[in-house]
Amino acid sequence: MGIIANLFTWWNGASLGTTLFTSRHGNKVGTDAAGNAYFQHGKDPKRRWVIYEGSNDSSRVPPEWNAWLRGTVDEVPDQSMPPRRPFQKEPLPNMTGTLSAYRPGGSLGGAGKRPAATGDYEAWKPE
């Protein structure tokens, strides 16, 4: 994406305004595995933001960086978080609207049929 494309768009990377603000006031504190860059304001360390690598989708921010962005932890995740345990899965982005989205068995998009009623439901009847 060139600067001209970022002049009017924000959904696939930083806009021109965000890029200028970041270059003047932001201190880069780290990058996650997806390539998202994290910044902190030079004068006010409580102001934090992310510039996404690719589309702007907050579900692509890993949990440890999300905690840092929200101020739950003060130190950047590389310094404050314990290493990932072997049983922990890698975080996934929001899969809604894709073929990988969760579809329970009884839903219209899910496989199989809806389970039969068990008889514990009684329809409301006006008196």
From TrEMBL:
InterPro entries: NDUFA12. Residues 74-127 are annotated as: Disordered. It holds the Pfam family NDUFA12. This is NADH:ubiquinone oxidoreductase subunit NDUFA12.
